[in-house]
From TrEMBL:
Catalysed reaction, written as an equation: 3',5'-cyclic CMP + H2O = CMP + H(+); 3',5'-cyclic UMP + H2O = UMP + H(+)
Domain Metallo-beta-lactamase intervals: 58-221
Top-level taxon of the source organism: Bacteria
One example GO MF annotation: lyase activity
Provenance organism: Paenibacillus dendrobii
Keywords: Lyase
Coiled-coil regions, chain positions: none
General function of this protein: Counteracts the endogenous Pycsar antiviral defense system. Phosphodiesterase that enables metal-dependent hydrolysis of host cyclic nucleotide Pycsar defense signals such as cCMP and cUMP.
Entry protein name: Carbon-phosphorus lyase
SUPFAM superfamilies: Metallo-hydrolase/oxidoreductase (SSF56281)
Any matching Pfam family: Lactamase_B_2
Length: 273
């Protein structure tokens, strides 16, 4: 599996273009891995997770052909993950040489709002919609996807994904705080080769932080996964979805996680799993 990190920031981006805090000022002046757009990944060039307003520029930045993407999975409808009106660029007359629909998957809020955002063209052969239910596995060709429950917005069925392809497994774990009980139960006996975990915060003084994780919560998840054999000696963890409000720049997160063998994702990073 090729995992391409398109964006690694929380909702406001890092730096937030409107913000004049110390972390944003430093990120602007240092540039490079400190410039983060809103969180999304691309798997094997054909499966994309989430579509924020930054997806357009991420595609231009990394020279990605979004016309080749076959499947778009939405975790939830917070604005940093969900900008379906931008998919209008894929309609007939705007996008040429398209030979397949973009299959869009999500909870009922994501599917309903995508349909409304696209209006009449939602029913064209450029789009197809599929409702996801937690813990019901779907097959996309040779890839199996199981939506898991996040511990995030309590008024929405926010999803995480367990993705199986070519004998490897990827856990897509943002946005979420300390994992939902039903997700812990489902993961028992499973193996994770690579996990992408929410690390919105830096230190929170809470090892089981709800809504979003911070450094302590990520380390606690790693500890239990290792104890339960879900993550073996070769299992990888990459952290993502960082906020400037943490005050931590890329190097600060690397220093915090290096002793634990956890990698800090950055925009444009490609991992071959
Ligand atoms: Zn988010
Ligand atoms: Zn800031
Ligand atoms: Zn969110």
């Amino acid at each position: 599996m090729k995992i391409h990190f398109l964006g690694t920031a929380a909702a406001e981006g890092f730096p937030n273009p409107f913000c004049r805090c110390e972390a944003c000022r430093k990120a602007r002046s240092l540039g490079e891995k400190n410039i983060r757009t809103r969180s999304s990944i691309l798997i094997d060039d054909v499966i994309k997770v989430d579509y924020s307003a930054d997806s357009h520029m991420q595609a231009l930045r990394d020279r990605i052909d979004l016309g080749a993407v076959e499947h778009l999975l939405f975790t939830h409808t917070h604005y940093d993950h969900f900008q379906p009106s931008d998919l209008y660029n894929r309609i007939e007359g705007f996008a040429h040489g398209i030979d397949h629909p973009l299959h869009i998957y999500g909870n009922d809020a994501a599917i309903c709002q995508s349909g409304m955002a696209l209006g009449q063209v939602a029913g064209s052969n450029r789009f197809a919609f599929h409702l996801l239910r937690p813990f019901e596995t779907i097959s996309l060709g040779n890839t199996k996807i199981t939506p898991l429950l996040a511990n995030h917005d309590q008024l929405e069925t926010c999803l995480l994904f367990y993705i199986e392809k070519g004998g490897k497994t990827l856990f897509y774990g943002n946005d979420t705080g300390w994992l939902h009980d039903d997700t812990w139960a489902w993961l028992k006996g499973k193996v994770i080769d690579m996990a992408i975990l929410d690390c919105t915060h830096s230190f929170t003084n809470n090892v089981r932080n709800p809504n979003h994780m911070g450094i302590e919560t990520v380390l606690e998840v790693q500890r239990i996964w290792k104890e339960e054999g879900i993550l073996d000696g070769n299992g990888l963890i990459y952290v993502t979805h960082f906020t400037h409000n943490s005050g931590f720049l890329h190097d600060d997160f690397e220093s915090a996680f290096r002793p634990f063998g956890i990698q800090v994702a950055y925009d444009g990073l490609i991992v071959d799993l």
